[in-house]
Write a structure and sequence with these properties.
about 80 residues; single chain; mainly alpha; 4 helices
């Protein structure tokens, strides 16, 4: 069972008085604060053509980066790209 978050009347009133920009800033600050916490990882399996994987591993190695780390970096960059 998940915990129930309760807010005081004062906190709810402050939230209702916030502008959309203030709400966005609050949410971004909250996300940044919690982004530094360790996140659980999940093992996945995917088929990749052998030549593509070999080339990717070689290029990542030339940059001094483990290839799986490079894949995660590319995934994060892709999500941030507008």
């Amino acid at each position: 069972m998940k915990a129930l978050q309760l807010f005081s009347d004062e906190a709810l009133k402050r939230g209702r008085e916030m502008s959309p920009d203030q709400i966005l800033k609050f949410l971004e600050d909250f996300r940044s604060l919690h982004a530094s916490r360790p996140v659980k990882s999940r093992l996945i399996s995917m088929k990749v053509p052998e030549d593509l994987l070999a080339a990717f591993k070689t290029k990542a190695s030339m940059e001094g980066s483990p290839y799986q780390t490079k894949i995660k970096q590319l995934m994060k960059a892709w999500l941030k790209d507008p």
